Amino acid sequence: MSLKSSAFFCALLFLCSCNTSKDTPGNSGSQSDDQEYSLSDPRPDTLARALFSNLNKLSGHHVLVAHQDALAYGIGWKGEDFRTDINDVSGDHPAIFGWDLGHIGDAENIDGVPFDDMKRWAVAVHDRGGINTYSWHMRNYAMGGSSWDTDSCVEACLPGGAMHGAYLAKLDLAAQFFSSLKSADGALIPVIFRPFHEMNGGWFWWGTSSCSPEKYREIFRFTVDYLRKEKQMHQLIIVYSTDNFVSADEYMTFYPGDAWVDVMGFDDYHGLKAMEETPKTIFMLETLDSLSTAHRKLMTISETGVETIPDAAWFTGVVLPTLKTNNSTRKASWILFWRNGRPDHFYAPYAGHASGPDFIKFMNDSLMWSLSELPDMFK
């Protein structure tokens, strides 16, 4: 795959010409004039601040390609040395690697990925200049069940609730895991953390079927505050991520507030299904551009994909023209394709799949960036 070297060096010069961090949060400016947005944490670690700043500089110029569990397994293989299906197809790895904290405290996560391996791979990603993002399909602690057990658990997890102690124990494990992610020089690796996603749907215990917007905001704020203030986690970049939405009001219904959010995103398994559905995604991206600019946040498509990719030209026929529709749609900082779990459940191409040639064209487009094309995102 072509590495689009001219685009790479232009962006490198672009980043180097800008001040990539600010000592004082809340400085003025916007993405459109290349001034800084600030992290919501008033005491961000240096590397987290640099990563957020550089994502801000790239917004509108490049969309980073992300893939869930990319190093853990693919179609026909598992746990090999820095192997990804995306690299097998295109000759380069995703720029952002997605992971999940579901079942933390067990040896393996919700998707069978050993936490010890996840730690090792996350460090390897950072050492190669890549970025790690974590979702959390959190168990329903009140029932001892899964994320999809929708009996209310939120009040039980909040202070004074019956499961508050159990919830704190899980947050402590998450903090311990994040604290174990260190670079070769001992610096804490920045983490893009996306808790309590798709809350405007009814399928999770923190969603509309069992949680009010007020209680959702309360547990989101409590979680972020606990990790920052009690556990001193200042390397976190926090994502608020809905499912599909039809209005700005719906998107903001559960929004916990600017002091607890750095990136505004949405998961989209509907609007990107086919070209005739993409006006939905375009509307959401345009709405998110307006909202994220007003609230001084970055924006992302935090999950997407079509299971088994039945359309061999989906990447350049649906995804790419949607992202390139206008200046608003180009502002998605990254787009994360869901995991390649098994032959009947995959969202990125693998070697030999019919969509492979189209995916190479997608990755070669100047808008889309992969791992080797990233400048130093932590400087």
Structure summarized in a few sentences:
This protein has 379 residues and is of the alpha/beta class.
Structure description:
By secondary structure, this protein is an alpha/beta fold. It has one domain: TIM Barrel (Alpha-Beta Barrel), CATH 3.20.20. The strands form two sheets. The protein has an eight-stranded parallel beta barrel. A two-stranded antiparallel sheet has the order 2-3. Helix 10 packs parallel to helix 11. The chain is globular and about 55 Å long. About 7% of the residues have low confidence.
Question: How many β-strand runs?
Answer: 11
CATH architecture: Alpha-Beta Barrel
What is the percent of helical residues?
25-40%
Report Rg.
19 Å
Kindly provide the name of the CATH class. Alpha Beta
Distance between the termini: 27 Å
The CATH superfamily appears as: Glycosidases
Largest sheet composition? 8 strands, parallel, barrel
Give start-end ranges of low-pLDDT stretches.
5-10, 16-34
The proportion of residues in beta strands is 5-15%
Order of helices and strands: HHEEEHEHEHHEHEHEHEHEHE
Number of helices: 11
Order of the strands making up the biggest sheet: 1-4-5-6-7-8-9-10
What is the count of structural domains?
Answer: 1
Overall form: globular
CATH topology name, in short, is TIM Barrel
Overall average pLDDT: 92
